[in-house]
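Not sure how to ask, but would you mind making up any protein sequence you like and the tokens describing how it folds?
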Amino acid sequence: MSLTLDSSLEDALGAASAKTLGRAFGMQSVGDLLAHYPRRYADPGELTPIRDLPLGETATIVAEVLSSSFRRMRNRPGAMVDVVIGDGIGRMSLTFFAKNVGAAEWRSKDLAVGRRGVFSGKVGEFNGVTQFAHPEYELFDDEDSARRSADARAAVPIPIYPATSTIQTWQIARLIGRVLDDLSEAPDPLTAEIREREELLTAREALELVHRPRTRNDIDPAVRTLRMHEALTLQTALLQQRDAIRALSATSRPASAGGLLERFDASLPYTLTPDQETVGRQVAADLVGAWPMNRLVQGEVGSGKTLVALRAMLQVAESGGQAALIAPTEVLAGQHLRSIAKMLGPDLAPLLMPTLLTGQMPAAERRKAALRVASGQALIVVGTHALLGEKTTFADLGLVVVDEQHRFGVEQREALRAKGSSPHALVLTATPIPRTVAMTVFGDLDTSVIRTMPAGRAGIESFVAPLAEHPGWFNRVWERAAEEIAQGRQVFAVCAAIDTTKKTAEAGEQPALAPEGASGPRWGVVQLDEALATHPTLGGLRRAVLHGRMPSDEKDAVMQSFARGDIDLLLATTVIEVGVDVPNASTMIVLDADRFGVSQLHQLRGRVGRGGVPGLCLLVTEAEAGSLARDRVDAVAATLDGFALAEVDLELRGEGDVLGAAQAGVRSSLKLLRVVKDAGLIARARELAEGILSADPDLADHPGLREAIARRVSDEDRAALAKN
């Protein structure tokens, strides 16, 4: 049977195997299976006597079957085959699991007493006996044949695949071998000219050698080729998406002399930073362009991104257009509304009627807000996911602003954009994105960076409180908090959980990082509040708690109270991570700091030092010096440069969740590509993609690349790309 990459797994392997692969990995086609690359390669090594086998390593031996039996399993369905083999010096056991007694009986007969062969697997131990669990083996009729085969095997790398409890790596290897045997030529994303110039393999060669390398030297060329395929496919898809946006016609939104924007700028009590001016000019030009703006603005916490966004909103409002700012939390949405109203002042605010729309608002209040939005009275709308509801309509949605990109999913952004006719889009993030990640994930967006900070910031000092080495420093942390409060300042204390006894985390939040060997965070907001209630100094101060499971009006009331200075010490979860602006807050205490990612810690730290009051960040951790968890905390304390931290973050955690769940569609397209290690290759792929599309926009002369995009960048993936 001749297979293609688009052949169904059911046709290629049968219904049972296809079903198993579908359930385990979501695979449907031969291409899906062949894109399930080995995560590493084991070395069978030299032939090793049984008595010298090293535990935990992959080994190859020649041995004779000494006993073979099978039995039905008592506590679960299926059967087990027990085999003992020996090499004349030592003995070891082989264990096989079978679905039923019939399969077990076949295996036991195959491994009949007296048969000799070569056995390869990972060496384990059970009840003091050396063991292979589900080894690879090949039986032979004579000793010489067995020896020759074993010697040959010793040089062949063994692919180790990502596996599950339902399908093991050796089973995946066999299924891949079956489809490779029947695979016809694979379409090549690269032309022969590019392939030769870049010194790469054909697609068929690369697939063969990545899955069935003859020697270690076969692996690198195969991986390099397949990485280029991934990079070129993704970069071409991103550029196509950018071009598709540019093919849309946009309503021009020019600023006018004496208009809202000019009036606003004249009322500002400070001058814009150089970066704010530069980015402002870029955005202003985008808003009068022939196609919709699609721009990402990166900026440090407190760099003034909101001001840039507000100026864009005012420019759109001059033509009667509406701007919608969507925030990830109700706390942040309420904060944005108050901040915008304050910046607009009493003269401009009534003209623009900034309106809050969230899901937790009382029904009557929400109806009023929705009416103002639908009628076009509200030219600035701030909200949460409620803006995405079917009942929310806009009179003339001209601009979508998404705050905190890393907290907001692609589907939500697209739903909001769909409410207008090709509205302009402005994406804000305070999480600096390394260049290669930006190129890989946001390659269809124009990117701007705000690095300069507004004048008058007092700065932030950061310190680690390493309780593993200095347990007494815990008390000093709270003494320091009391000293700040005594000077009339306010303090944040952030925990990784709401209640450690109930193991409650924030709804919708990513689970806190779990350092190796740790069971859970020591401190929750509930536990910290109880502990501080008896503190000799802090116990009598004005204290409040804030977390995502509180009712919306209660959260808002607490936040407003803190902003007014009515609360000295706020105990919170990461609900305050983004956007909360309290100039009088001087101190950020993060408990179980090793439970947070680098960008999270940087975001939290950015909540203080925002006014003329010097900021202090105390990162409390029990992580041991030298551990990865501790390295993260130390890295944050060492610098305030978010862009430098973004690079450190990538180095510390590898690719991990760089792309994040919100970019699930894009992430699924990355199998071998590593945005850190392959930075040069990604940049080269971008150049190639630009050259290809410039000469051949429809990819008529690049059918292999066109097919690769159709196959690897699915409708879901393309939707994810479009929503960035």
Remarks:
- DSSP finds 26 helices and 21 strands in the chain.
